[in-house]
Amino acid sequence: MKRNMRKVGLTLLTAFVGGAMALGTYKVFEKDPQEGLTFEERQKVYFANNRPTSNVVSSAGDVDFTQAAAAVTPAVVYIRTTYSPQQGRSGGGNDPFEDMFGDFFGQRVQPQRAQPQRASGSGVIISTDGYIVTNNHVVANASKVEVTTNDHRTLQAKVIGTDPNTDLALIKVTGTNLPIVKLGNSDDVRVGEWVLAVGNPFNLNSTVTAGIVSAKGRNIGILGREEEEQNPFGRSRYQQQPQQPRLNKAIESFIQTDAAINPGNSGGALVNTKGELIGINSAIASHTGSYEGYGFAVPVNLAKKVLNDLEKYGSVKRGYIGVSFTELNPDVATELKTKTTNGLYVNELVDGGAAEAAGLQKGDIITKVEGNTVYESSDLQERVGRLQPGDKIRITVLRAGAEKNFTITLKGEPTASTNKTAMSKSAEELYNKLGASFQPLTSAQKSKFRLNSGVVVTQVRRGGFFENYDIPVGSIITGINGMAINSVQDIDKAITNLKNGQMVIEGYSSDGSRFRNSFDVR
């Protein structure tokens, strides 16, 4: 009997060990279960396994913000950025955000010229492994990004990608099991709904303010205004149109709120009373730079597409319709001699663009997108901004008094016309604008800086780009517009390889520090 019991025990032990070995082998080869999932899909898995302990009250019932604030505050972070004296927040020029609305997007300290510049803002943790959404203007061109969590930990962050066209950025810190804010659905947001703004105004960490949604789909004309180019979906004001539409990829469809938003709130969370993220706070309309009752947030449904692209590709893969249009109102309708006062009047079609291929014509009036009535440019902008090249979108237009339906297959960013302005300038003209002379690196210089190629700056002339952007004699230029530089002839070839009129120069200062400057040569 004892022998039989011992045999059974041995059998059970063997089965247990075998199962453990099998499980261990499985774990070795098991893939990361979140690999390939979007941020929203990851969150669904997380919240399916971590259900809230109590129910929150919706804005339709008794107003109680305590549970929403408690759920969101731990995942809103303070972001502090540092910029080199040469670079600055906007690459050496004035910040268009500050020019238009004042210095409220972040809090900048203006030290002496020779010292680094610093700025601050907010961010929202959206994944447990450390991905954080913030505004592009909070981290653009920053040489150092520090994140302080709600529990007072300071972490170094790397910028995964930025999208100036929506003023969004994705950064990442190293961590596990970090608190996150649940992604909501901005399409369900209603005007008059209670919302909370959570951020770090005036360096006051984890500040919560309440208000309502004042409006949706606001186009306030702040993104892309410095480029003076047209929106790929059309202009929001009637203007004299060029023969061929030029592309400004900015997308504005802000949620407007009267929740108090002040300097430092930029990049923080706009959430509903369920504690769900519905927007990223980005701007305020103010004469003083402080809160005056008008705040604007990027809707989260647009942000989802941008953030997923930034993580996967490092940039946003955006589809384009390829039209220039005018937003109709009674005055514009009279000027255009049309009886229709709502919709988007098609002024021009991009040659070879998606709209032209689908059969749209100049003079068509876009009245619906995916069956939804179009009243202003943002009604089209945001819908298209969520899609990729190759995706299809249904457009209804009014033509000769009758409605016609079209299915448009979006195309990628046009390349033929973007360099037109840049290519109109000769290599000689662009070379002279540099205001510098160069000489190939000697073997000793290559060995000193451990470089295989490059040219050294031997002279800097007054009024040129090199003087204006403080690139002194002795600096080493290793690349221009993405091309390696090893001789003056290489410079001649590279300087005409411009994109959107921008020249990008990379290299090393005489002390070995690396720099990258961008010049507008239009």
TrEMBL record:
Q: Tell me the SUPFAM superfamilies matching this sequence.
A: PDZ domain-like, Trypsin-like serine proteases
Which residues are responsible for catalysis? H137, D167, S266
Gene Ontology terms describing biological process: proteolysis
The protein's UniProt keywords, in alphabetical order, are:
Hydrolase, Protease, Repeat, Serine protease, Signal
Q: Which residues bind substrate?
A: H137, D167, G264, N265, S266
Taxonomy, superkingdom: Bacteria
Pfam family name, one: PDZ_2
Start and end residues of each PDZ domain: 317-388
* Molecular-function GO term, any one: serine-type endopeptidase activity
Q: Which SMART domains match?
A: PDZ (SM00228)
Q: Which PANTHER family match?
A: SERINE PROTEASE FAMILY S1C HTRA-RELATED, SERINE PROTEASE HTRA2, MITOCHONDRIAL
Q: Which family does it belong to?
A: Belongs to the peptidase S1C family.
Entry protein name: Do family serine endopeptidase
User: What species does this protein belong to?
Assistant: Mucilaginibacter aquatilis
